[in-house]
Fold:
Amino acid sequence: MADVLKEKHIPRATIQRLATYVQVLEAFTRDDVEVISSNPLALACGVNASQVRKDLAYFGEFGIRGVGYPVVSLIKAITSSLGVDREWRMALIGVGNLGKALLNHGDFRARGFNIREIFDCDPFKIGEIVHGLEVRCTSELPRLVTEEGIEIGIITTPPERAQRAAEHLINAGITAILNFAPARLQVSSNVTVEYVDFFNHLYALAFRHPKD
Amino acid sequence: MADVLKEKHIPRATIQRLATYVQVLEAFTRDDVEVISSNPLALACGVNASQVRKDLAYFGEFGIRGVGYPVVSLIKAITSSLGVDREWRMALIGVGNLGKALLNHGDFRARGFNIREIFDCDPFKIGEIVHGLEVRCTSELPRLVTEEGIEIGIITTPPERAQRAAEHLINAGITAILNFAPARLQVSSNVTVEYVDFFNHLYALAFRHPKD
Structure:
């Protein structure tokens, strides 16, 4: 089943829903729910039930007709199919407040997303120890990416330094970037960038807010 | 023009692109670019040029045919039309590392998104001063939301406390929530929730990463 998913082109929206299902299924495990049918799962996810059934058809072997899906097995099947049931080693550039908060975000490591190296271009920060990691100069990126087997780069620099940070990561062989800086990155088509953009969300809230 | 936009139903995807245009236009101002045409703007945003022209047709009066858009005026027109050119007062629930990082995120205040009150249910945190704000008990939310004119709530609790935090906010009259907790919230249809979900993005990067 996992292989079926990997071989297909899965739209971004489907990946987003699968990630949401995992989040909600994990909440059910905290409440000791062992089996869940598609209707309550759909309700908890804010997705319609037929969509849930369609998405989970990939994992059909786990469903028991008239009963539902075993929660723990379904989480494992989805995370395995997405390739997130293993360790992913990450490097972070920009050791400011947000960078430090992410370093201390226990959930990352718990889910296998492991920040192994941290970088900054500020000479006053280089050598500082933050949550057990030494802040390194970006010139060391290529060597450390290879030595540590790093696959994902995180950018938490100010916006005007984000493009430079992306270029450091790409030159070191990284093709997957999670960008928290409020800036668009110019990258070649073999590089995947995901944007975590707080203001995009705040703008949406503000715009939809009832006007006075 | 701003009024035209406010009266229409604008899809979420359009708001997202408008927020991106603002971000990219701000980068152009840092490079002292005064006028920009739709092609370079589209390239920098990763959006096709006809889409940019269509989106910016709302702000058509600002464009000069054959020359382009004056950057600063266009930023003002977009932010005004989205209603983000004024102060938005916010309350944050969950004063952990992520909450503290957001409090210290200079960009929020610079863009008018002002965290005015912070809350936690941990008695050891209540009374603590964090970045100049006193951590309050959630029982004080209704009074402070009214007194301070707070319109947006931010949730940075662990996932198992997120629903409770949302209910505190909603009971205090808040209908716009930015949720950083990795949990889906059950809210009535008059409440808007935006999810900032790091794992959703990491899952997408991991899934699209070239497999060994």
About this structure: Chain A touches chain B through 63 residues (CB under 8 Å). Chain A has two domains: 2-82, 88-200. The mean pLDDT of chain A is 89. Chain A has ten helices and nine strands.
